What does this fold into?
Amino acid sequence: MPVPRVWSSVRLGLSRVLSRTLGGWPSGEGRGMDLSGIYPPVTTPFTATAEVDYGKLEENLHKLGTLPFRGFVVQGSNGEFPFLTSSERLEVVSRARQALPKDKLLLAGSGCESTQATVEMTVSMAQVGADAAMVVTPCYYRGRMSSAALIHHYTKVADLSPVPVVLYSVPANTGLDLPVDAVVTLSQHPNIVGIKDSGGDVTRIGLIVHKTRSQDFQVLAGSAGFLLASYAIGAVGGVCALANVLGSQVCQLERLCLTGQWEDAQKLQHRLIEPNTAVTQRFGIPGLKKTMDWFGYYGGPCRSPLQELSPAQEEALRLDFASNGWL
It folds into this structure.
């Protein structure tokens, strides 16, 4: 059943929003939100019996909240959101907002497969404390997700969202890149403020920056592995899984880029590439959670069907960090 204290605040706002016309939000609703900075995509802790461990979530956020992040992403890919119920997704957002300092932005992943479900989840997450909605591309019917279909989807969501919308392209998980032409069109919507691009194609990121330069539209790199390159071509920040364990170092890389200390930035970027690959492409969320345990946070188990690392995989993971001086 939905958590009562979350849903009690959602019902009124949801009914108000869904009663508006599609053009009901004032023009420029999202403009003015500065996304610049680093965001860890927070993991969802689970107990040994696969229940969401909200206490451990709050402990992790209290520790991470002491670092110079611009904000946090909850219910991104690293949050295992496809494995959570709707009520769990909302409760995670609510608990995160309560645990974080007020000056930290909270971006909540509200994407669902249908437009209607995404609108409802977006409105609900805004009601429980999200500052912006990060909306992943619907992908189950990826063969039919043309630019026209995706533009229609995101426009409807942005029209009805009470908070700014950030587009989210993560082809490694969805098998679908949000087309550049669709991004350019959507960048003109007053309530769409940016994109998190996790594809790793720096040429594409640069083209998006270039093509949207006349709009108040911001690009966030979706990984620490190409953060330096993304800053060099105009990105304003990054949503980086590695920041969950090497947060100070990822923020240091940001500062070096912003102050033009490119030689030092390059050296640091080189030392982050293997650890970043380990907790994203190579070992994924189980690898990230294992390193969190090593670095003083709670990682814990993943929810099935994701599996724990084998001893050999754990040793390889440790080597990727140790060989770069982090363990």
About this structure: Residues 262-282 form the longest helix (21 residues). The two ends are 43 Å apart (CA to CA). The CA atoms of residues 10 and 66 lie 30 Å apart.
